[in-house]
Amino acid sequence: MFFSLYSSILLLYFMRGFYAMKSTFKALFLALTMALFVLPAVSTNAADINNIPAPDYTLKYTVDKSDTFIYSYNVKDFGAVSDGVTDNTNIFQKLLNKLGNLGGGTLYVPTGKYVIKGNLTIPKGVTLRGDWTKPSKNSALPEGTLLMAYTGKNGNERSTPFIEMAPETGVMDLAIWYPEQDANNVVPYSPTIRYGLNNYFGNEYCNTRNVTLVNSYIGILFNYDNGGASPVVYNLYGTTLYKGIEIDKIADVGRIDGVHFSPDYWTNSGLSNAPSNKTSFESYMKEKSTGIVMRRNDWSYTCNINIDGYMCGYDCEKTLSADDNATPNGHHYNFNIKNCKTGIMINATNSVGILFDKIKLTNCETGISLGDGTSDVAQFFDTTIAASKYALRTSTTSNTKVIFNKSNVKSGQVSINGGTLTANSCEFNNLAPQLYFGLSGRGIIKGCSFKNGRSISNNSIYEITFSDKADITSVEDFPEISFDFHVPNRYVLYDVTKAPYNASTSSNDNTSAIQAALNQASADGGGIVFIPNGKYKVRGHLDVPSNVELRGNVDLQTVPHGSGTILEAYENRNNPNGSCFINLKANAGLRGIVVDYPEQVFDGSESWMPAEYPYTIQGQGANIYVINSSVRASYKALDLFTYKCDNHYVDFLGGHCFNVGVKVGNNCKNGKLFNLMFNVIVYACGNESKFGSFTNMPNGVSNAPLYSYGLKYLDFLILGDCTNEILYNDFHYGSAHGLVLQNEGNGGPSGSSMGMGIDGSSNSIYAGAGTNKSFDLYNSQVVALSNVTNDTSYYYLDSNSGITLNLYNSDYWGQAYYGINAQPSSNTTLNLVGAHFQNPGQNTFASMSGSNANIISSNLNQNGNGFVNSGSESHISISGSTVNNRDNATTSFKLWDSNQSAYASLSSDGLLSNISRSGWVASASANNGNAYKALDANIGTRWDTSGGQVYGQWFTVDFGKTYQFNTLILDTATSTSSDAPASYEIYVSNDGNNWGGAIASGSSSSGVITFNTQNARYVRVMQTGSKGNYWSIHEFYALNSAVGNDLPNGTVDTGEIDTPDPDPVDPITISNLVKIEGYQISSQLKGFRVISSVEPIINNLSVVSYGNIYGYADMGVTDSDMVIDSTNQYVAKFEATQAGIIDRKFGSSDTATYFVRTMTNNGTTAAAYNANYKVRAYAVLSDGSVVYSKVYNYSIYKVARVLYDSCRMPNAASHQYLYNDILSVVNNNYKKVDYDWGSTIVKK
User: Which of 18-32, 790-804, 971-985 is predicted with the least confidence, judged by mean pLDDT?
Assistant: First the structure.
């Protein structure tokens, strides 16, 4: 018998019987050894460094054999010595220069210690690569390539760095150590790695991957004086003594993914100058070092960040450009910041918002800090904070709207001194009072739980809205990302330029030569077909057989810049139905290749149209992959729909195309599209030297028509019928449609996206007719531009569309004519949680003749001609949001619940409740007859200047007696913030004649002015600026506020600080093909059931057994204990049996096996219901390896609470069971909910 299943609610349960669960305990002994560097013998027949021959390309495995690379030169072959004594600067630099002259390549540095006394410059197209093993901060630095740096002592950010990088370069698989740095007397050094050369045109796509910075002072710095675009950092480890990474002045998306900083990397490195006094060194780090400093970053993606023991983990600051006020935005995902003074510090905000999802801040003094003068919006989702002082703190002068959804404050004060806290469906388990609202703080607190009852300290002058109704009850986590490693089926290299193939850059057609190498590799059983640097004409098309990879010479994330391997495509011009240029058979791959279309020549005219070609790349079976490749002047880039391409994998495909970027369909399953990066600029500026000086973009012509063409004709990403498509950090600029969701006969796509960036689109997201599945998007950034036909939008929902789109954290800006444009008969559902519409629409936010939009805990700024079109209201639900609704009756909306105006409104419930203005008299230099209206307690009336603001205007209040105050409120209310004084000076007097000097001056759009405490009878506000707006005051107050006293009773919350889990010793494999699908509670059986699923094939291997693993978290079980061979006695594995297999499909997969396990006798006490547990699913594969789902944490009480509050049980009796048997046992004052209540979002 089946009971109520809620597969999208990630809530788990357990059983009392587990308290007694035991397993055989086995002592786990971990032997720790110091890694020793082996010093190879010095070669006696080294090649002449002054007469470097042509490369002899060599294929090599990485140390862990997870990847392969091809190198051009080995430094040891030219006399480099890895003895830790001899200076190798000259040898390294000459080889790097040689590769630069050749157009790119890789310089290999084998295992050993290499002294570099000078600095290294990496030319365009070149990679410096060694041997590297991922370090553990708890053990010695692993054996590998170690560069010993001596340059840059007593330097700064602008001093010559140890390594400086030209565009399209790489530093990979090595460690860097400063032997002369002293942990007891740290001295500054110049940056270890600086992206961008001084006085060089271009600073794009510098790549750092798999690098350990043992003790850098400044790790990676984007050149202060040479702005550029798209820095790339992957898997950066180590200890950085001042700044780990600093990004500024970039104009296109950067990618920072996998950063691990801790004092322990240096302390435990085993190197000669490692800190000997661990406590002293940790104190230094906590006072001096910042993990990541983000300034102007232009949408950048910052993901998978782990920072331990720093002063600040992540710091948002204004640009250093003197002529620019740019600030960071972008999206941030999966942060684990612990033991820091401040976890996330935001001192600069961006009008378009900034996005954070899956953030864990543990054992920090302050979790999140919003600094002085910040504004705009910051969005946090799935954030857990355990802080000793402040979990979240905003400055009194902050006006930021902090959107805080589905999050958990375990400890630390939440102090909203300024700005707005919008919290929905959060847990506040910190000490009471859990929330403090200071002078300028306001809030919307909706559907949140409070440990031991809600307690609020309200010292605000503004409104605070509370509602017990939760809106966000079920959100499925974005799947844990794993970057697939692809190694050749055979470890063999086929160089197409060697006999018998003899491909050449001088050949008029290399088709047959390259195809012959591909065919030979296939006939031999597989391998890598390698094409060295240069431009190769290919007048036919290429078929890459199964188990063969076609690879070029610059294996980096980069768009075309002129270096590396460039294939020039000619075939099928104006024959779009012909063969695609590169055809990937099942299990075939493409890597490090650029494709250009030389005959696609722009003529500069407005009417120019490109020639039509077939797709550049076509997948023709399962398991195809495309890595670090790009196109330019392509008509259509990648076809994943003509053939069924299950398990396709793309990790960085970039460049430019005219008509379609990527199209997926044909019912393919489990595809991954990571790091797509398309921008019109690649072709439009292709004649520039930094983009390769390509001749098919002529000099001297305007490129504006190319941008216009994209806005009319380009579809960036089309998703047809496909299942479980995973999108990660994909971006493009300049399209007619950014993301197209279309039906091919089976309802369109399903899947998830993290970090979707749609920039400069006409209709950003398009839902087509016949779509009926669901798609989840997290941390999305969406921009739509205007056009002459006024039909642009962020969302275009076509007639008969029916897809459900769930967006968690999203930002919208640009000049969309409509925010949402829903056509008649459309039936799409938009669930927008944590959305920020910087511009809801040039005309209106919504024109909806169909579909439904549910807007939860979001912000909608003022838009053009009105809020929504008349008649659209019945399609729109808005709750727990700040909204600038000027024209529409709130009763006309489908739902309007617990919303506030975008502009703060005074409230008599907080600090103003004790203020009496009896006897106060107002006067003014202009419109004096209306001055009293600023004191009449009527927000609808006002005093104003009846004209523009000019110097010398004043407004005065006589209190009638001496009055003590330190704050003035000049409320502009329903007027705009532009009606605040342009600038002001404040004066006080005891007689109304003698005013003395100004006690304060400045400007304040909020109308709240603070200063030192005064005792006076009169106060005067003097206008010292000028502007066209009236100066308006709807209500005037003077009061004595306790500014800065935001820790009630001086409380420091230490009761529930999390102890961070230790780093896992042995990594395990996580797969989204084995998962927890849902959970059931049976009132009849009084039992709890976990429903799981597993695919029959994972990692190309058969599944032989599967089941679930349970752990008792309250007994100290950690995520790393949750494995099938765990030695922890409070962990148990249950293998699935035939009896537990069910026929009913509970998830999105049609091929998975679904299985259940039901537990009864779960206990009936509050302690049993509140006990904390863990669960994960596992699968054993045919080669003996094991894959796991992620771990979930849960308690019976949490399950019952959410199922009850959102009325998810199948009938009233089972609903009442939850209350009587569980909820009231834990809390006898638990609020009852009628069974027929409910208006929540439940996925799927």
Answer: 18-32
- Residue 728 CB neighbours (<10 A): 24
Both tokens of residue 546?
């199964």
Q: Report the DSSP beta bridge partners of residue 1021.
A: 955, 986
What percent of the chain has pLDDT above 70?
A: 93
The pLDDT of residue 603: 93
In this structure, what are the phi and psi dihedrals at residue 1218, rounded to the nearest 5 degrees?
-60, -40
Q: Report the distance separating Cα 865 and Cα 886, nearest Å.
A: 10
Tell me how far apart the alpha carbons of residues 654 and 677 are, in angstroms, rounded to a whole number: 4
Q: What is the pTM of this model?
A: 0.83
pLDDT digits (tens, 9 = 90+) for 660-677: 999 999 999 999 999 999
Pairing relation of β-strands 1173-1181 and 377-394? unpaired
Distance CA 163, CA 191 (A): 8
Q: CATH number of the domain at 916-1033, please?
A: 2.60.120.260
The closest alpha carbon to 1121, from 829, 1113, 757, 882, belongs to 1113
What is the Cα–Cα distance from 2 to 1102, expressed in whole angstroms?
Answer: 29
d(CA 769, CA 799): 6
Residue-wise pLDDT for 117-130, tens only, equals: 999 999 999 999 99
DSSP 250: B
Whether 327 contacts 293, CB under 8 Å: no
List pLDDT tens digits, range 798-846.
Answer: 999 999 999 999 999 999 999 999 999 999 999 999 999 999 999 999 9
The answer to whether the 916-1033 and 1070-1226 domains have the same CATH topology is no
What CATH number does domain 489-664+699-713 carry, 1.10.357, 2.160.20, 3.30.2350, 2.60.40? 2.160.20
Task: Compute, in degrees rounded to 10, the torsion defined by CA atoms 958, 959, 963, 969.
Answer: -80
The torsion of the CA quartet 1127, 1132, 1138, 1139, rounded to 10 degrees, works out to: 160
The residue type of 362 is: T
Burial 850-880 (b: 16+ CB within 10 A, else e): bbbbbbbbbbbbebbeebbbeebbebbbbbb
Outline where DSSP puts E strands in 65-182: 68-71, 73-74, 83-87, 105-109, 112-116, 120-122, 126-130, 145-149, 163-165, 169-177
Spatial separation of the C-alpha atoms in residues 630 and 678, rounded to whole Å: 9
Q: If residue 896 lies in a helix (H) or strand (E), which one and from where to where? A: strand 895-897
User: If pLDDT is split at 50, 70 and 90, which confidence band does 1053 have?
Assistant: low
pLDDT score of 526 more than 60: yes
Confidence of residue 1113 (pLDDT cuts 50, 70, 90): confident
Element spanning 517, H or E: helix 511-523
Beta strands in 621-756 (DSSP E): 625-640, 649-664, 668-669, 672-679, 715-719, 722-728, 731-741, 749-754
**DSSP-derived secondary structure for 12-71:** ----GGGGG-------------------PPPPSS---TTS------EEEE-TTSS-EEEE
Work out the mean pLDDT of the chain and round it to a whole number.
91
Residue that is written with structure tokens 């308006």 in the block: 1032
Going by pLDDT thresholds of 50, 70 and 90, the confidence category of residue 501 is: very high
Q: Taking CA 766 as the corner, what is the angle to CA 765 and CA 770, rounded to the nearest 5 degrees?
A: 140
Q: Quick one: CATH architecture of 31-289?
A: 3 Solenoid (2.160)
Q: Which CATH number fits domain 1070-1226: 2.60.40.10, 3.30.450.20, 3.40.50.300, 1.10.10.10?
A: 2.60.40.10
Q: How far is CA 1008 from the centre of its chain?
A: 34
HEC string of 133-144 equals CCCCCCCCCCCC
Domain ranges, ordered by start, for the chain = 31-289, 489-664+699-713, 718-897, 916-1033, 1070-1226
Q: Which residues contact 668 (CB under 8 A, 6 or more apart)?
A: 640, 641, 644, 645, 646, 648, 722, 723, 725
335: β partners: 305, 359
